[in-house]
Design brief:
The protein has about 120 residues and is α+β, with helices and mostly antiparallel strands. Helices cover about 30% and strands about 25% of the residues. Strand 2 and strand 3 form a beta hairpin.
Length: about 120
């Protein structure tokens, strides 16, 4: 199990994975952090923060990465970086499926997710 610190590290480690069955699981969903104590014009309205979750797996290894994003420009840049993982079969899954897939590889939910994610 691997938790790279950046998308660049995730792509680098995933591209070095060995094995016949390479999968890239993708989940994109709303992220609801704890409510702001003091709201301002930036947090009072507008676009909800989204969370992108990626799990690259092969027969023997898995790598997980997640990060929040706010706009389509960030998502476009992420997709450009993921283009290099063309040998992976991609599958878009729900948050519940992502958690189940992570647990199949021995990965546990982070404590901050326990506090903030809906069950």
């Amino acid at each position: 199990m691997n938790h790279p610190a950046s998308l660049e590290e995730f792509v680098k480690q995933a591209s070095q994975m060995q094995g016949d069955l390479k999968m890239l699981y993708v989940n994109q969903s709303d992220y609801t952090p704890e409510e702001a104590i003091v709201s301002d014009e930036d947090t009072a309205g507008g676009v909800n923060m989204q969370m992108i979750r990626l799990l690259a797996s092969s027969n023997t290894n898995a790598i997980y990465w997640e990060d929040p994003f706010y706009d389509s420009g960030e998502l476009e840049q992420l997709n450009i970086q993921l283009d290099s993982l063309e040998s992976f079969t991609r599958e878009v899954i729900t948050l519940q499926e992502m958690e189940k897939t992570k647990s199949n590889f021995g990965m546990k939910q982070d404590s901050i997710q326990d506090e903030n994610e809906p069950s």
